[in-house]
Amino acid sequence: MKLKHSVLLICLMIAASLSAQTQPKTLVVKAGTPIATIQSTMWGLFFEDINFAADGGIYAELVKNRSFEFNKPLMGWTKIGEEYAGQFQIINSQNENNPRFLRLESLQGKELGLTNEGFRGMGVVAGENYLFSILAKQEQGASALKIELLDSTGLVIGNAEVKNFSGDWKTYETKFACSVTHPKAQLRLTLSGKGVLDIDMVSLFPEHTWKGRKNGLRADLVQKLADLKPGFLRFPGGCIVEGHELETRYQWKKTVGNVDDRKLIVNRWNTEFSYRNAPDYFQSYGLGFFEYFQLAEDIGASPLPILNCGMACEFNSSELVPLDKLDPYIQDILDLIEFANGATTTKWGKLRADMGHPAPFNLKMVGVGNEQWGTQYIDRLKIFLKVLNEKHPEIAFVGGAGPFPDGKDFDYLWTQMRELKVPLVDEHYYRSPEWFLKNASRYDSYDRKGPKIFAGEYAAHDKEGEDAESRNTWKSALAEAALMTGLERNADVVYMASYAPLFGNVNAWQWRPDLIWFDNLKSAATPNYYVQKMFSTNAGTDVVTALVDGKPLTGQDSLFASACIDSKTSELIVKMVNVARHTASLTLSLEGKQPSVKEINLQVVANANPGAFNQVGKPEEVTPVERKQKISGKKIDISLDAYSLTVVRIPIKK
């Protein structure tokens, strides 16, 4: 009998537990009472040239080391031709920004040339036109240059010829079609005829780029950014801003003007990680500040440039500019504001116009420094802010809270940010999924009268496997969704947020996880991307209260939620996250407003396997789906899938 009673007791406990799991909770949503405005910049993008995100990524140039300016001038190039048939000479010119060029000297009139391997190969598409250009000068003799695309077996899959070179430096262009789709093609240049030809800026672009701009950006990657409908674009980083040392910091003035004259430098991620060395990683600056501003405008995002504050990366050299030598660094920001917003009669405004954009870029925000910390950062920030606030009170300047989301440095910086009355403070958190779940209420107790929050870099770091994309699990994305409900719920203090990093090349990455993975031909949205998209495309205009038993849902019974209204479309938007392995029921009880329809739309992304992730070139494991649900009255029963993010849009009566 005792055994029977024990079994009965266990059964009753299990039944009670299951009943508790399935018992609907009521989420009371005060749809008629907005409590905070959601900034148009709430959900945005962070771009840094890491993981070959620029050269070899979004910048569509296919030729690596096109101007022979790498530390090893012929890196990426392989010489071809009979021994002693000719010479390959690297010559230094008087051009400070682009000093090197290659001299090809055919001594016997036999074919001489070289091949370029591209960025882990060149992705080319059958039927696509490719634009070849070269800066060249005929020193003596008469030569023709044969241009060929080769597949991995050496088969010619596209070709053209350039000839009639003059004795002055000129740019020569031609166009040809590719006959085969291939992920790892190479470019071969062959000199015919006896003579000497100097060449520089060897370039190959697909004709089809974003918005059809000649020598522009890779269309499929930019489209993924545009689909997020971001509120802002932060650029160019990141640690790129700081540099390993000050000499290799990002200097925006060297990235504008004629592309031929932009000074290439080593990428600071070149040898940052010994286990992911990339000695061929440089910055050509074909993607420079003009292109960043243009990209932001194209995708409807507010530009947020970040500039160096006179400090190199504190994890590397910690090199500092003396306090009395900061003027050039401050002037860089003043000149950047003029470049972005100034009249075309000003020096930098005229350059913007000369580059094809007479209208201002409407810059409203600038970041000073990236992940600096300590008194040395504050000493410099004070000097910057004094000048900048006097000269440009219309610009909101962003300060940083360091590389970590807590600790003594974080606390010190926040104390200083309050005293300096910095408008926006940039917080970063790369932490475990569990940390994200625990911090969904992080901003509930933040000072409402202090600086506003820019969650400038965040990503949940789950376990990693052999596949490049393996760290972008559904578990990590779901944890981020939980935290993001807390960001939205606290939109009166959180003004901006962006996942980081943005891009990862599966064949040339240094850091993971990343929001979008790609190879030379294809790209894949991660589960994290879909979470970002579901929030950013359902941003709303005003937060409304959503409570269970008088409290926000911040993890009770593994549930998280936030709610807002979109005053432009007269809709209530509720975001709900279930991180449990069982389904959950939630009843939405609307107060103050009434649905204006009998059927609503639900967007759901769910997967029973928290370890699932999406891969380039394979069917996606984690993707959103849309559902419809009939409703009646102000109470709406919602079933939340296990491990899911659900977004409900409910048209409401005005």
UniProtKB/TrEMBL annotation:
Major enzyme class: hydrolase
EC numbers on record: 3.2.1.55
One of the protein's GO biological processes: L-arabinose metabolic process
Pfam families tied to this protein: Alpha-L-AF_C, ASD1_dom
Record-level Gene Ontology MF annotations: alpha-L-arabinofuranosidase activity
Signal sequence residues: 1-20
InterPro entries: Alpha-L-AF_C, ASD1_cat, Galactose-bd-like_sf, GH, Glyco_hydro_b, Glycosyl_Hydrolase_51
Enzymatic reactions: Hydrolysis of terminal non-reducing alpha-L-arabinofuranoside residues in alpha-L-arabinosides
Alphabetical list of SMART domains matching this protein: Alpha-L-AF_C
Domain spans labelled Alpha-L-arabinofuranosidase C-terminal: 456-644
Keywords (A to Z) from UniProt: Glycoprotein, Hydrolase, Signal
Family the entry assigns: Belongs to the glycosyl hydrolase 51 family.
Protein name: non-reducing end alpha-L-arabinofuranosidase
The species this protein was found in: Aquipluma nitroreducens
Lineage summary: Bacteria, Pseudomonadati, Bacteroidota, Bacteroidia, Marinilabiliales
